[in-house]
Q: What sequence folds into this?
């Protein structure tokens, strides 16, 4: 009887239990990777984690694994590089010395059909992802509008891209749609709208947004009936969806986020620091071998 019991017990043991060694964990196993990232990033149980299938990358011996964290409408995308044996995980930027260090982001930035000001073909291009209800975006918008055109009338081109953070800003999406409606009618009037809505940010609510926008439009070269219809039918929402998709492809999950010839700057910027970066890029583009290719110039960004 004892012999039978021992035989059954041994038979039910897995190999690592027999020899005393636990199986190696692998980051290529989705459950293992999800648990590791949850611990690494302090993601509580309320946060859902999804792990993509591994895919080839430019680092020899490694695979790229994208991880997506979400809670309600909030989400964050993370990229990791996992060794092919599943034992090592890298997180960070990968640069190819043959290319501009910001080439990967530059390839994703598309500024055609986006509101812009400054000289076309300027050596420095700024692309701002912003949210009309964001207080920090208001600060940066005022800084950029007050300084860029006056300090760099020939050397800088500035573009605006909507990135409403809807989970914390309930009227931001509607304001972005309204802004696109204004831009569709009168591209120059967009910047009046941009300045006005940030200036009156504290007065706007979900309930009064449309009325406030129509009040703003009076006296401008804007057909208010057409504007009202555009806002009511959300006619420009498909354009906004494309803007958000671009932001997500660039992992822009907070505002403001500014790209200076592809160089990412997250959060409100101070003018001395921003000016130093612009001045550096102006000088760099005078002699750069990749100027006009992946430097952040308008040809690269798809402007017509």
A:
């Amino acid at each position: 009887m004892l012999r039978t019991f021992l035989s059954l017990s041994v038979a039910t043991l897995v190999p690592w239990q027999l020899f005393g060694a636990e199986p190696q964990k692998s980051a290529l196993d989705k459950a293992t990777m999800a648990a590791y990232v949850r611990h690494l990033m302090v993601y509580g149980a309320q946060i859902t984690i999804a792990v993509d299938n591994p895919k080839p990358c430019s680092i020899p011996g490694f695979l790229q694994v994208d991880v997506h964290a979400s809670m309600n409408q909030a989400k964050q995308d993370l990229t990791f590089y996992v060794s092919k044996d599943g034992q090592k995980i890298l997180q960070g930027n990968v640069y190819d010395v043959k290319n501009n260090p910001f080439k990967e982001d530059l390839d994703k930035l598309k500024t055609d059909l986006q509101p812009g000001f400054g000289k076309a073909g300027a050596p420095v291009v700024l692309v701002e992802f912003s949210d009309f209800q964001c207080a920090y975006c208001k600060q940066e918008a005022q800084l950029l509008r007050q300084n860029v055109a006056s300090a760099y009338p020939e050397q800088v081109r500035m573009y605006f891209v909507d990135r409403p953070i809807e989970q914390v800003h309930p009227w931001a999406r509607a304001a972005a749609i309204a802004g696109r409606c204004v831009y569709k009618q009168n591209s120059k009037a967009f910047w009046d709208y941009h300045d006005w809505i940030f200036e009156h940010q504290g007065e706007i609510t979900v309930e009064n947004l449309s009325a406030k926008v129509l009040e703003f439009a009076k006296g401008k070269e804007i057909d208010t009936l057409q504007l009202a219809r555009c806002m009511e039918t959300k006619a420009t929402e498909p354009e906004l969806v494309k803007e958000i998709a671009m932001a997500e492809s660039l992992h822009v999950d907070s505002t403001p986020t500014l790209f200076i010839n592809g160089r990412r700057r997250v959060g409100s910027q101070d003018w001395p620091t921003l000016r130093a970066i612009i001045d550096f890029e102006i000088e760099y583009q005078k002699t750069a071998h990749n100027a006009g290719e992946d430097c952040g110039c308008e040809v690269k960004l798809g402007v017509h």
About this structure: The chain has twelve helices and ten strands.
